[in-house]
Batch of 2 targets.
Target 1
Amino acid sequence: MERPAWAPRNIDISVPSVSRIYDYYLGGSYNFEVDREAARKAMEFMPGLPKIMQANRAFMRRAVRFAVGEGVTQFLDIGSGIPTFGSVHEVARAADPAARVVYVDHDPVAVAHSEAVLAGDEGTGVVAADLRKPQEILASSEFERLIDLNRPVALLLVAILHFVEDEDDPYGAVAELRDALPPGSMLVLTHASYEGIPLSEERAKGTVDVYEDIRNPLIMRTRDGIARFFEGYDMVEPGLVPMPLWRPDTAPEDDDRWAFSGFAGVGRTA
Amino acid sequence: MGLLRVRRRGAYGVSGGLDEPEDRLRRFATIWSRAVFPVTATSSTRPEFEAQLLPLARRLSDALKARSFDADEGKAVGAALVGVHCTDPEALSRSLDCVDAYLVLYCGGDGDQEDLRARSARLQHAMAAGYAQALRARTLAEQEAISAAALKAQGVVAQALHATEARFRAVFEGAAIGIGIADLDGNILQVNGALLRMFGVSGQTMQTRNVLDWTHPEDAPQTWKLYEELVRGEREHYHLEKAFYRPDGTVLWTNLTVSLLRDADGAPQYQLALMEDTTERRLLNLRLRYEATHDALTGLPNRTFFFERLEKALAAGEGQRFGLCYLDLDGFKTVNDSLGHAAGDRLLVEVADRLQSCATRPGEMVARLGGDEFVALTTGPDTERQVDELASRIMNALLAPISVDGRELTVRGSIGVVEGPAGERSAAEVLRSADITMYRAKSAGGNRFELADPEADARAITRHGLTTALPTALDRGEFFIEYQPLVHLGDGSVRGAEALVRWLHPQHGILGPDRFIPLAEHTGLIVPLGRWVLEQSVRQARAWRERYHDGGPLRINVNLSPCQLTHPGLVQDTVDILERAGVQPDALCLEVTESALIGADDALLKPLRRLAEMGVDIALDDFGTGYSNLANLRRLPVSVLKLDRSFTQSMQRFPADPVDLKIVEGIVSLAHSLDLAVTVEGVETGAQAEQLRILGCDTAQGWYYARPGPPDRLHELALVDATG
């Protein structure tokens, strides 16, 4: 039965949430037993999941620093999840104290938590909205308050697009956001894929099934499928690559082999 | 001088330029970070992580060598580890190993090794304690925070839910449409106010009800079939009209839509009913239909409705028949004209009521067609008898006078009865037949019923048609006059002619007076027609006089109808016509039938007397056909007797009937003794003429001499010796 638009999503904390699972991978306690249970199950198939998450966040830090270095100090972080540590605004402000960040998530608990943590911080805002409805994000009061559309914006879609199914038109949503942001804006993206996982696809599928069971299916796109999100953008060197290879601060050989799962990239509009 | 590396006392010979304590501290930090970094989730790089551990390493190093030992420094370091996101206890384990293996080695300096080892151990314990405490505090804090967030989110959702619930409730309660929810067994779970009001029951009553209770005789056959399909999950929704009983006994009509509600997994869960009250609309429709099919004044079915029924009866199957009584009230117009339309209406209402009570059999129907015309219909296989009874009932019903405005009015009717099998004629044909039959009844005097008869109908149609065409015919000059000469039996001379009027009817051709004179008399048109005939004839007489002034005076005979007799203008009109034509009164002979003067009183005879005094001759036509009061004959202002042809017909043959001869002789004798001339009509043979001459008749008229013809022919005749 189709849930009508005006009906709010249920807050059923007996159902695992991907943000809380993500937090658990990163060693946090912003999670419940059901989240931990799901995480543990997922890790049975892919024990290196925490390392992938860590690499994700490390890439994000480097990308944010790069953006600030390029003069982009406004950030729209969609699918921001639970602000575990080293969040976008902390990293950005370390480089430019005037940096402004709008966090967007459709998980009401994540939103509530972020609001609590960021209460009183004038340079940040939290929006409860869904990537599938870009207009709701762009029309939100927080976006209007914090983002100056005369200056470039960095759009962060970190570890989120692999949770959006094709039938929800993620490519359309990304394009809509691209067109709504001024020239010189950036797209910062990571995406899960079977490519690079140090396991057979069959075994990795086990993890995909776990996410399927908790009703947040994991869509493992190919590199080409992921590259399509960058249509209309010029890729920043080195392009779309495994996370540890994107402008690393340290030698990639040091990195855990799991960290090479999936892809990351930054693009910029002319 | 270059930078000298001074070998500190007590430094161990460790490889590569680590003589400075600072360098050794850094080395320790590097090793520590390398050991712990793989088990942290920090987003920092290892060198960055190392930089975060360096101050912690420094604290341990300082604590190790401090004058008074403070184990709390270890606690602080342990806690700080948690602070740099080493939340995995493995990080503590590796940190402790690291401290155990390398702290004294790199940071010990010259102190007592025993002592330093003891301090290192104590620092490790403290680190563990500090770490555990900090991790516990952090975990609890994070759990607390996430629970609070979840609660808040739930609160937000609950609020939103509450808002939507409130919205839903507003819709549910405020809707003008009745809404109800029941489980699939039919148990009512929830209904809104509108539905309760529609049904006229309280909420408590409704809660105890089951959907299956609500059958109604008007339910369409598929009503419950659709319901079964829906509760079984085979149908998503259905829509139909359904009636319900209300506790007060009235009926509630609804437009009902029932939908199936499924749960999140798609299993059938509830049924949702939406009901729109259409009772009023239905009633309105029924009333509109009633008003469209019933006569506003009397409440009887109207023409439209009647035709529907008649057509249905005529379309009925084999063996079915119909009977129809078409009633027209006699003299209704008089009531309307004398008492006014309000009284007329009241009369009609009373008549309608009485007629309605005549329609006693099932299937019988009385309707008002308009004005004072009503019709009663009966159907079935036995209508021959039924319609007869129906007509009688109607006649009886009209017997009793009707009381209107204090007056007792006698109402009579003319009824045309048509009866026959279904399937033969159309409604229009049947009604036409009934109309004509009724008209025949009316023409026959009214207060009766007549049965339809195709021949009689045909004549009636014609008569009716002719009657209505008369006035126009007169205006259009469709009448013309033929003249039949009157011949003196003595010398065979033409003494005059009888004017005989004909009608050249556009459809029917030439019609003789018997076809239209009675009709003209009926409508009163005889007066203008008679005047016209008189005018024409008198003018013609003058024309003859001028032409044949050498012959004897020619007289014109014109027929006068009883209507004309009573017309007050008769004498004046005649005088005017004679004067206008410049003809002497003695040129005119007016023929009046014997029967018109039977029992005539002085009032009737007065105009004739006056005309006779003026010199106009009056002839008694068709003499011998009425029961004349012979004694009265003396009183009549007549001068001629025209003997009816029936007396003389036998004389056409030879030998004539002797009795007839005697009768004629007697009449002639009677007439002559009263100083009356005798004219014989219908003379067809010479023998007859001779016989009549012998008997003493004065003039004769008939085909023997000439058929009626145009006025010019008389000229020829006048010159011929008619006795030849």
Note: The CA atoms of residues 26 and 54 of chain A lie 7 Å apart.
Target 2
Amino acid sequence: MATTSTYHDTSLAYPDGVPKTLADAPLVAGNLSFHDVTELVAGHTEKKTPLFWFFGFSVALFLMGIFGLSISYLVWNGTGTWGVNNPVGWGWAIVNFVWWVGIGHAGTLISAILFLFRQRWRTSINRAAEAMTLFAVACALVFPTFHTGRPWLDYWMLPVPNQMAMWPQFKSPLMWDVFAVSIYGTVSLLFWYTGLIPDLATIRDRATGLRQKIYGILSMGWTGSNRHWRHYERAYLILAGLATPLVLSVHSVVSFDFAVSIVPGWHTTIFPPYFVAGAIFSGFAMVLTLLIVARKAYNLENLITLDHLEKMNIIILVTGTIVGFAYITEFFMAWYSGVAYEQYAFRNRMFGDYAWAYWIMMSCNLIFPQLFWFKKFRRSIGVMFFISITTNIGMWFERFVIVVSSLHRDYLPSSWDYFSPTIWDAGLYIGTFGLFFTLFFLFLRFFPMVAIAEIKGVMPQANPHFYDHAHGDGAAGDASEATVEAVPAKSDEVGR
Amino acid sequence: MINSIKQKFAEHANQNVGLLAEFSDPGALVHAVKALRKRGYSRLDTFTPFPIHGMDRAMGLGTSLLGYLVFIGGLTGCALGFLLQWWTSAVAYPINISNKPLFAVEPSVPIIFELTILFSALTAVGGMLALNALPKPYNPLFFSDRFVRATDDGFFLHIQESDSQFDRASTAKALSEEGALAIEYVSHDGAEDVNPDA
């Protein structure tokens, strides 16, 4: 047992926290103890609500009011209040749906895929990113739900017996979407909640009265027993293994909505990987936008360090470039296919009525993220905040270009038309920000926004071998004098 | 039969009755677990704020059974996804469109896949809770005031009273010799400090 495993060695190699490269950077800065981490994260759910929270929450509630108004007006009058026309039957509703679902990919990517790749820096951001995923999926589901026009008949999309004795058309990509997105939401919720159980127990053990009861029920009597951790860690690993193909499949299925049709500009096999890369790209940008503000507001700079942000910026650079490469590949394929309709669709994107949208998309998604090739920009809060915003603008326009510019020029020139949104399109879109931020502010207030147990697990002092100098080699059954003496020496730190 | 079930429940209720000892850090805890197992104790458990690397091996625990449960759950979801699409489109309400097959595997793959994932994930979480016997609203360990730190920065070792080696005085002494900072006896009546030197 004298030899330490290489898995833990990276954090032990730099006890003073002086990293030589980004990969060696300490995962928790500021020389924090386990108790400091608990105080830092759980403390925010216990302290007096800060003033900025009330300010932000009231803005979110105001937008939530716009949401309620837009939904009511829509249900009362029907989807004709939107700018959708013939041939652009899928307007902002589908653009917004795909945009929100895309954003919802980052959380599960961070929790599942980075977990499987043992990217331990994920522990500082995964909780907030998972919450963001859930809320983004909730916002996304608003659009298809109400795009049906008669949302009270939406149960026709579920495999339940109905008065027509008919069943859903399972050969339709739109049905696949119903299953993929709702199951993605469910599994993301399970994943998030499973991760939360130990941290809710932490809050329970610090609380009294009603608070203790509520968190007690939520944490289900968790004690941190190692016999429990054994099944828990296995469950977490399995969930990560399940969520990884799931997260890749969801945006693939969303892209099938387009790719399985025959509309020029939609009918391409590149869509699934290109949509998934775009989803990760926009999701990371949204996580970045939220965490740049949250880490500052809640003094979490030691847990969500600049090194973590830099790593996220690298992912944004990579996925942004993949997306840009996919745009160029689409053009090549249109030219190479020799299909006149396809070639027209892509020329029209670049120079047609919606060329402005196309160039916004190109500059935001392909050009701006290239700034991240420079370390100076990757570590600049201002630059990364700017790019996180432009990325989400760009990704919204990507969906707009795909949906609207493809539809407004279909095969039949007599049906060509120009699409303009109405104020109710905009109202519902802005309203979903209200829904998103209302939920996110509630999350920040009542839940631990950083995974406490996980972050403790990646700290160097979590490794039993960290104490080897004090305990000899820690050999089994070796109840030496040194062990007994060494332990009380540290008791002043523990006896807090 | 009924008596054996009753006994199982009684054993379960009493599994957290015994001596609870606090240790200073993960290294001391792993060391103590190994030492106490060497002394012949088997019904022991540790309580820590995060899973400790190597503790499963120190406690002699094998791999969790959960993977097998999830495999069964996944197969159920897979079969259900297949049957659902086949039965609704080929049996319950067949619609002939251009004489295409009523059911084909290819367009059914996405929903079969999604249902496989859904059932596996539900089994993973439900199975984890079931194997851990959670939710567990009552636990005698919560009588201990020290124990709240098990979810913060405390590292605890617990030896069940039902362990064949258990003897309140000698076990407390053993725990103390292995470096315990504080020892308590926890039962359904509450927690009381134990002086290992008494």
Note: Confidence is low (pLDDT under 50) at residues 1-18, 471-496 of chain A.
